[in-house]
Amino acid sequence: MGGAFCCRPWHRAIPEAQAKGGVSEGQPISRLMHELSIAMSIVEFAEAEAEKRGSPRVAAVHLRLGAFSGVVKDALLTSFEMACTDTRLQGSRLVVEEVPLLVYCSRCDARRSVNPNGWFICTECGEPTPQIVQGKELEVTALELDE
Q1: Which of 39, 73, 85, 142 makes an SS bond possible with 79, Cβ 3.0 to 4.6 Å?
Q2: How far apart, in whole angstroms, are the C-alpha atoms of residue 47 and residue 32?
């Protein structure tokens, strides 16, 4: 990279993303911009790691994505593809492991899924369970590098 900055035509990315199904017609543009910002950070991180390891190309980025992370998987996948343009990640895959939301129930002394109605209530005993223990993740777990 050497400190160079590449300016990409993001104003054209929105219609392209809508055409690919990454952002629906009625979905706000801010939704795509949120995921695009995250995708660009992932690409920057992956490029820096590949450069440290002397790899010319990144074949895949593995990511854990929590159900309560605030990130829409399809929009992130579309944004990742756009963010990879003209980088050593161009043509790479974003492999997403979806992480379900789990809370800690103090009455059961166990990790539990939440009530399907959206309330943070233990599915076993009905106790309110506000302590999230899993499902907010957004973390790169591995890179596949080409030699």
Answers
A1: 39
A2: 22
Tell me the average confidence (pLDDT) per consecutive run of 10 residues in the chain, 147 residues long: 35 46 51 85 95 93 95 94 94 96 94 82 89 95 91
The C-alpha angle 111, 117, 118, rounded to 5 degrees, equals 60
- For the entire predicted model, the pTM comes to 0.74
Contact 103, 129 (CB under 8 A): yes
In a domain, 17, yes or no: yes
Cα-Cα-Cα-Cα dihedral of 48, 54, 57, 59, to 10°?
A: -90
Using CA of residue 50, residue 134, residue 93, residue 87, what is the dihedral sign?
negative
Q: Which residue range forms the structural domain that includes residue 54?
A: 10-99+135-146
